[in-house]
Amino acid sequence: MTTLPSALRLTTTGTADTVRIQITGDLDHDHADLLLDEATAQLTARPGIRELRLHCAEIGAVDSMGLSVLLMIGRRTAAAGTRLYLDDRPARLTRLLDLTGTLDHFTASGM
Amino acid sequence: MVSTRAQTAADPEPDFPWGGAPCPVLVADPAGRVVRCNDAAQALLPGARPGSRLADAVPAWLAAAHQAVCLPGPRTAGEPDAPWSGMIEARRLRAHPSVRQDGAVAWWLVDDTDHHLAREALRTERERTAFLARTSSTLLSSLNLERCMDVTAQLAAESLADAALAIAPARGRRLPVVTCLRGAAPTSALEAVDADEVPGLGEALRGFPPVPSRWIDPAAAPAWLIPEDFGPVGAIVVTPLPGHGVPAGALVLLRKEGGAAFTEEEEVFARLFAARAGAAMSAARLYAEQRAITEVLMRELLPPVLHQITGVDLAGSYRPSSDHERIGGDFYDVHPATAAGEPSLVTLGDVCGKGLEAAVLTGKIRNTLHALLPLADDHQRILTLLNTALLNAHTTRFATLVLASVARHGDAVRVRLTSAGHPSPLIVRADGTVEEADTRGTLVGALPDVRARTTTVTLAPGESCVLYTDGITEAQGGPLGDAFYGEERLKRALAGCAGMPAEGIVEHVQMLASQWLGSRGHDDMAVVAISAPRSPHRDAGHDRTPGGCAA
């Protein structure tokens, strides 16, 4: 379990083949990199995990940098053969994914 | 005390036991004549013989001291650690008198040279420290390179030499040189000269350690190095001005002929000064370079001034982010049709991220779109090619944009719209209805494939199509300061804009967003309006070929 001292709080838990990162706070220009670092670290530390689940229920504002980081995590999970899930998305996040034409990309590779 | 020692000492001469004492002792009577000298005093003052006049035998300061001690008048017995001191030859001596019973005075001359030198050194050191502190505070308060060079030359000419030159690394084949004579104002010039003409200067400008001044022959100095009316040069010091990683320049110190040469200590001090001056000049130069880069980029990013093209009203407005580090996200462009009757391409977009990287990506997108103009009709193809051009393995920085191909058809304007992950354009109808253009697509630059659906809308005279970036809808403010301006408010505001010219709509939207923000910070905000003019169409091409559209 990791807790980062910032406006974005990430809580990582995991089972044998699943890593779950709970996102609390804004995924924006100033903080999105923290999520990318955490996800990358998990993928590197635990090669062969089947699922990376990002729990988004407590996610705040997601700006273009936040979306860019989600896309990068998507690219890295695909490369690692891990499936990425964006769980419990608030309507606002779904709308952003829909508007940018990326909803299919995230859901086709996952849910 | 002295007499006590004299009495107790087992000496062949009880009256003058100090014959062999290492400290010079001289006895003089009240009349000002030398009575006795010991060997040390004899060596120090060869003229002092018993019987000789004190005034002839010793320096004036000691004679005066003797007179003062012998003056009749109240005097505390045992007297004084009186501070009589002065130079004899190259030594500084402190004279301690002791008055004997017969009225004669024995002068003990104590060598004070080292103590004095230490005090002098301390004073010099303090002055230098104060000077260095002044140097730093004066120089670091300026981020202007020219001013830094002026101050460097001026300070150096005041405290280190008779004249000083601050020289920056060559710009092209010219050396920027600031010259300052002591007490005069600095003058700057660009000298078309070779730095290697001056021994040590080329090396200093390349950042090599300084050449000791004794190796530099003043006679070999080229004329440009020596200020007018300076006269013959006695000594030259060339010191590098070390910068942040790269040399910031060199400092040349000149002293006149006949003056003191540079001591090793002074050269070391000049280097300490140069370190501070170089740091300041280097910071100023980095700042100037950074500003120049930012200016060039920002100039590239400035959107064009829009006006009517081929019978269509266009207006655009771009309000850069209030946070200067975050500029660079939004852009819009208009590419007028190359032939009459063909559509013009209007683009508006938003690049992910802020600052320099976003600015660079924006430039790339605008250039790529420009190159793809021959395909302007096929939006899907443009987006696919643009996506391929932007995709790279390292980042998922993306852009969202709207493509609008605009052409006049009779009184109406036909707009083909494609959104690539961007908020849908809004259509303002003549009756105040606001419609969202039915277009959707994938953002470009992050995913291997992009798909987009194009829609065509027809604008009757007085109707408009509004393209905007999310800086508008995500302007945070309102009565409580935390609400987004939002799409619904924007639509309601546009409903009131029915029939307005393009420019009016753009101004109105920016004004409302600003009001919503109040004094709060914001991201880039861009709006473009495409309108079908109300006035009758006077396009020459259209008049000439009335049937052209149908053909």
TrEMBL record, chain A:
Entry-linked Pfam families: STAS_2
Cited InterPro entries: MlaB-like_STAS (IPR058548), STAS_dom (IPR002645), STAS_dom_sf (IPR036513)
Which residue numbers delimit the STAS domain?
8-111
What highest taxon heads this organism's lineage? Answer: Bacteria
Q: Which protein is depicted?
A: Sulfate transporter
UniProtKB/TrEMBL annotation, chain B:
User: In its keyword annotation, does this UniProt entry include Kinase?
Assistant: no
Domain PPM-type phosphatase, first and last residues per copy: 312-532
Report the residue ranges that make up the GAF domain in this protein. 144-291
Q: Which domain of life is it from?
A: Bacteria
Keywords associated with the record:
Hydrolase
* Gene3D superfamilies, sorted: 3.30.450.40, PPM-type phosphatase domain
According to the UniProt entry, its GO molecular function terms are:
phosphatase activity
Q: Which InterPro entries match?
A: Bact_Sigma-Reg, GAF, GAF-like_dom_sf, PPM-type-like_dom_sf, PPM-type_phosphatase-like_dom
Protein's recorded name: Serine/threonine protein phosphatase
What lineage does UniProt assign to this protein's organism?
Bacteria, Bacillati, Actinomycetota, Actinomycetes, Kitasatosporales
